[in-house]
Amino acid sequence: MTLREIISLSLLLAVVVISVLISELLANKLKIRSIDGKIISREISRKLLHIFSSITVISSVIILENYFALIFISLSVLALLFITIIKDLIPSINDMHRKSWGIVFFPLSMFILLLFYPADKQIICLSFLILGFSDALAAIVGIKYAKNYFVLISDKKSLLGSSVFFVVTVAIVWIVGSGDYFHPLGGVSLAAYSSAQIGLIALISGIILTAFEMLGAKGSDNILVPVFASLILYTFGVFYNPSLINSIFSGLLLGAVAGYASYKLKFLTKDGAVSAFLLAAFVYGYGGWKWTVPILTFFILSSLISKARKKKNKKVDDYFDKSGTRDYMQVLANGGLAGSLVLVYYIYKVEVVYYAYLVFIAAACADTWSTEIGNYFRGKTVSIVSLKPVHPGVSGGVSLQGSIGGFAGAAAVLLSVYPWIDFNYFLPLLLFGFMGTVTDSIIGATLQRHFKCTNCGIITERKNHCNTPASVHSGLGFIDNDTVNLLSCSVSAFVVYIFFIFR
């Protein structure tokens, strides 16, 4: 580092120390109250610290030209904050009732964005500007004045706060994008678009990032917001593509209709509906019908089959951790990684990515249909590992009816994209898709966590059964059914990638 950079960083460090002291002062000395009389000084001080942290990240990126120095700083601050939270060295950082990890995600997000955009400091600064001010101002206004609250995952959010987040995000993207204020830093920008087009991009950013902020729990929005802000801004900036604006707006409309209808039909929970809305916006916005049809085929048909099975054989739900109405984790496990492949394809235009996406969805559909159809007909079920009889519904169990259902599920997804694929690959893609349900059964039988009910004695995926906590029976504690689904589908998609590379 140059002498100028060392002096500038020293001054920046002094600002950080002062901001922490101000945060502590606000938390301990001032008695700021919300509209209902509750003392909220600690919450406001934490959010002000988030603003200072965002400014610190932006200043570091502007001051330092050395890429590796920025990486070192992000990792060093990450380690320092981790220790600070664990040891409770700065009480105002933590929530009154739990450790608050939100501030730790700032250097982690900085590290992630530096890895993905080493030459795009402009995008990094704009993303952290959104994180620092949109999120913090939303929380401060919401804490102080909000009356109406909602909970999607675990954190309480306010309608007023979400509205403030949306407005501030739109303003930041529009003003900074139109002025191209970070242009000297280098990297992609929105300067090629007209002011009106940048306004529409700002509106898109506001809608999508507000939805992610609503889903953020336990500080995770401090990762979700900058990461997805950078993705949106980068994909608009790396290519001059005004038609993408209309595509994403259409995706938002499609996602809103699909999410609302799915919630009303009880296919999805509230958090699942918001997740599906975001997934549809990205998949259709960046990929069009070619990418949207297979995931719609999977979701609609699988939901209908699940409903039919539930009417015929509801008792098997005792063995499942989740059944019936899908939540955000199930949407993420079955479509989150697949949705990210759309962005990869949009940027790099590599056809194998599309085939990997198809097989990911086909594997998810094969696994769902295998489970639902197998339990609908309740045929003879054996463990895929020991080949010993098991009760239908037990993870790792396979049956003839379920296997046929798995093939049918994979085939349904592949047939839905008949106009867009080379059907010479249909058979291997079908086999790779079906392989997902085989992999799922193997992992489910060996690694997935299982519990034993202390009352009725059944082996189940549920932590609680018969209204009492169940005892640990087998598997690894951190591998639940959603994790198994994600792993099995990812394995199938990876095998497709290898197949096309070496075919």
Describe the protein in words.
The chain has 503 residues and is mainly alpha-helical. It has a domain at 288-503. 68% of the residues lie in helices and 5% in strands. The chain contains 16 helices and nine strands. It has helices at residues 3-29, 41-63, 67-87, 105-116, 121-145, 159-179, 195-215, 221-238, 243-264, 270-287, 289-312, 328-348, 351-377, 400-416, 426-446, 481-502; strands at 149-151, 156-158, 382-383, 397-398, 450-452, 459-460, 464-465, 468-469, 471-474. The chain has a three-stranded antiparallel sheet with strand order 6-5-9, with no helix packed on it. A hairpin with a 6-residue loop joins strand 5 and strand 6. Helix 5 packs antiparallel against helix 6 (159-179) and helix 5 crosses helix 8. It starts with a helix and ends with a helix. The model has no long low-confidence stretch (mean pLDDT 86).
